[in-house]
Amino acid sequence: MATKHSADQNSKWNAGDIGDQRGRTAVVTGANSGLGIATVDALARAGAHVVLAVRDPKRGEAAALTVNGSVEVRRLDLADLASVREFAASWRGELDLLINNAGVMNIPEASTKDGFEMQFGTNHLGHFALTNLLLPHITDRVVTVSSGAHKMPRGNRIHFENLNLAGEYSPMAAYSQSKLANLLFTLELQSRLAAAGSSVRALAAHPGWAATNLQSRDASVLRRTLMAAGNRFVAQDNRAGALPTLYAATQDLPGASYVGPDGLGEMRGAPTLVGRSAAASDPVSAVRLWAASEELTGVTFPRLESERNQSWTPQAVSVSV
After folding, report:
1. What is the pTM of this model?
2. Which of 43, 102, 106, 284 is 20 to 30 A (C-alpha) from 181?
3. Which candidate, 126, 66, 80, places its Cα nearest to that of 102?
């Protein structure tokens, strides 16, 4: 249920401006802490029924008890494609809103259960598979949480020749690649939805600098120390950090829009439309990443109801991991 706001209203936009969400159902991944639980709480308070999709149901249940509204908890491990398939297969009925929020950041080198580099596998491939498997149920939009880190020099391209960054792993480079992938995914998803004649929209958002538990898991002791200081003196809290996601999820915006804070360096502030890097706007890379993601996950863009009289043939691509 989208609503419109003027530029003046947008500069002061907050969770109270979401609008009536009664009768709507949302799924939020990574919903038991940080940006996720703030997003859940705001949507539930506005009347939506919100599913907390979490790796640890016990932690999810504890988080759900803090929410004032209609919520439920379901298990979802984005680092395990079997878990993603199980979650999607169990879904019944319509789903108005999917928020791809979960993520890991700057962690030591590790692999998902399917052998993918953990940040690329969780932040991008897990959400890629989840979105496509749920897409026949989705009626309104998909919002994927990216980051300003997609603009970092070492993250300004997708390493198609070595997506796992084997032998050249850097926590920050891997994170940047995964966040760039989130934006390219949104770009190509919107293109495919439009080609299929679907009214569903794909959008992206980033929180600026929001104080969450992600910073405490950084692989670098020095970065953890610096981020702890930044969390205290620079960062927004998780509720403010969730506003761009909520804005993208509820306001009347064009498909492929990217929302972030309006303050200096997009670090904090009210949600507004923001720019992305040239690499994140490249339709050729977006198509190539989509084909690679289909090959790696075994999940393809579904044939939607509105697509019955159309056909889609993805481009073949050689992928190295």
Report:
1. 0.87
2. 43
3. 126
